[in-house]
Amino acid sequence: MSENATPEAELSADEIFEQKAVRMAKRERLIAEAADAGGGAYPVSVPVTHTIPQVRAAYSHLETGEESGDVVAVAGRIVFARNTGKLCFASLQAGDGSRIQAMVSLAEVGEESLQRWKDLVDLGDHVFVKGQVISSRRGELSVMVSDWAIASKALLPLPNLHNELNEETRVRQRYLDLIVREQARKTVLARSTTMTSLRDTFAEHNFVEVETPMLQTLHGGASARPFKTHSNAFDTELYLRIAPELFLKRAVVGGIDRVFEINRNFRNEGADSTHSPEFAMLEAYEAYGDYNSIADLTQELIQNAAIAVSGSHVVTWADGTEYDLGGNWDRISMYDSLSDAAGINITPQTSVADLLALADKEGVEVALPNHGKLVEELWEHFVKDGLTRPTFVIDFPVETSPLTRAHRSIDGVVEKWDLYIRGFELATGYSELIDPVVQRERFVAQALQAAAGDVEAMSLDEEFLRALEHGMPPSGGMGMGMDRLLMAITGLGIRETILFPLVK
């Protein structure tokens, strides 16, 4: 057993087969011994009295060479081992990455037990040890083992802890990533802490969390290409939802005035550094709010999450960069900021021909161009990359936001914002469209776009329209990708923030 075992990803198929065969033989021996003495390669349980973090917290005061006189029983995965004749050393790692040294000596366990340790224990095994807590001659907190057992036999070797895992191994074998890399464990904890913070902030504002269907007869709530499936029970085509919006609005119609959901969405589109076909989404709706109040709430949600994860509005990304999420975030007009950057006046009344001419001049290509799509693509070309601080980009073209209320004072514009952080869109918010007659007109326009070849256009949803016809109060709504929120807080790419991302 060596602390420098070759990682599985670096071994040939023959070498993996050989190492697995050796460990399989050890497994067979453990099972044979268990027939007489109990235990085995995979016992049901081991009599643990303390966790490794508990022992480290309780005995960190021990001086070099000091003995506590207290006996504990702990378990962990062996990530380092060294055998030196009459004394064996092993580092046991807990799930949070904390470690403690186990010292297995001839004087404490006897010759037979010491030899069994040498013969049967490998890197990667989960091992139970019982003994006195001491500080070694080198000052390392340790358990001087008096009794031990294998809790779970590993049949494949661990990666070398001295080498970095490549990205493919990290995302395809995330369990190895979690074992060997502290940042991977931190990211999981940061995600959990973020989710708790979001729910706590919503609770402070009296929001109710609900769950809505992931299988839907019509796809809607966003402009995106859906995944299709078939229900044998109902003998009908179904869609994996692209957004929970239309069902959450039904809840608002029903009187749940402040409602939110955190759950999975699916969009049958490309995958890149900021997009995943399957992703976690937060959506929230606030009766008698608008896009201004929901922007205030969104800023509070993100800032509270930053404090929960990092203790401050200033977060430190994985590469060491500090990013300030504090203060009141800028709110800039899409049309005004585009006009300033392009050097010409662009308004909701600017013709498609003029916008196409500008797009051609700048080399901006737009599929199925209309006024709204041209404005948004040109804005991304001229403005987006220049945003450094968190920024709400407000007041969008009506053509690209069919579920959004018309602006209260600007023709051709809807009350919508997109929030940009770290160079990508993190969240979007609206003053919600609640007029069922106008909503039907928007759906019909979307259907015409679908007929013209727009695969992301929405379907006409009669059930949703029927709900609106019963009266929905004026509302503000927002949606935010959870994976992207973690990207903003940690500085990582999307495949790092998703625990088990979809990969080819």
Question: How does the SSE layout of this entry go?
Answer:
Blueprint: H1 13-37, H2 52-59, E1 67-84, E2 87-93, E3 99-105, H3 106-109, H4 111-120, E4 126-135, E5 141-152, H5 167-172, H6 174-180, H7 182-204, E6 208-209, E7 215-216, E8 227-231, E9 236-240, H8 245-253, E10 258-266, E11 278-287, H9 291-310, E12 314-316, E13 322-324, E14 330-333, H10 334-342, H11 352-362, H12 371-382, E15 391-397, E16 413-421, E17 424-431, H13 436-451, H14 462-469, E18 475-481, H15 482-490, H16 494-497
Helix pairs in contact: 6-7, 7-9, 10-12, 11-12, 13-14
Binding site for Mg(2+) 2: 425
Subcellular location: Cytoplasm
Binding site for Mg(2+) 1: 418, 425
General description of the model:
This protein is an alpha+beta fold. The protein folds into 2 domains: 13-152, OB fold (Dihydrolipoamide Acetyltransferase, E2P) (Beta Barrel), CATH 2.40.50.140; 180-329 and 389-497, Bira Bifunctional Protein, Domain 2 (BirA Bifunctional Protein, domain 2). 36% of the residues lie in helices and 25% in strands. The chain contains 16 helices and 18 strands. The strands form 4 sheets. An 8-stranded mixed sheet has the order 6-10-11-18-17-16-15-14, with helices on both faces. Strands 1-2-3-5-4 form a 5-stranded mixed β-barrel. A hairpin with a 5-residue loop joins strand 12 (314-316) and strand 13 (322-324). The protein is elongated. The model is unreliable at 1-7 (pLDDT under 50).
